[in-house]
Amino acid sequence: MAACSIEDVLAKAEQDEAEKLKSITVQKELDLEFDIGNLVAYDKNRIDIRQFREQKKEDFLRSLARDNTQLLVNEIWKHPTERVEEVIVVKLPEPTTPLPREKPPPKPRPPTKWEEFAKLKGIQKKKKTNLVWDDVAKNELHRLRNIARAQKIKVPGVGLTPTAQQSKTDLARAVNVAKSSTASAGKFQDRLPKEKAPRNTGKKRKFQPVIGNFSNEKQRQLDLLKVMDSKKPRLDVNKAVNKQMREDDREESAAKFKKGGKKGRKGGNFSGKGKGGGGKGKGKGRAGGKGQGPPSGKKGAGKPGKH
Amino acid sequence: MQKLLEKKVKVQYVPCKKANTKRAKRFLDNRAPKLTENIKNAMIMKGGNTSMTVTQALKDIYALKKPSAVLYKKKNITRPFEDSTSLEFFSKKTDSSLFLFGSHNKKRPNNLIFGRLFDFHVLDMIELGIEKYISLSDIKSSKCPEGTKPMLVFAGEAFDHENDHKRLKSLLTDFFRGPVVPSVRLAGLEHVLHFTALEGKIYMRSYRSLLKKSGCRTPRIELEEIGPSFDFILRRTHLASDDLYKTAHRQPKALKPKKKKNISHDTFGTKFGRLHMQKQDLAKLQTRKMKGLRKRRGPAAAAAAVVEGETSPKTTEVE
Question: Chain B: nearest CA to A112, how far in angstroms?
Answer without folding.
Answer: 17
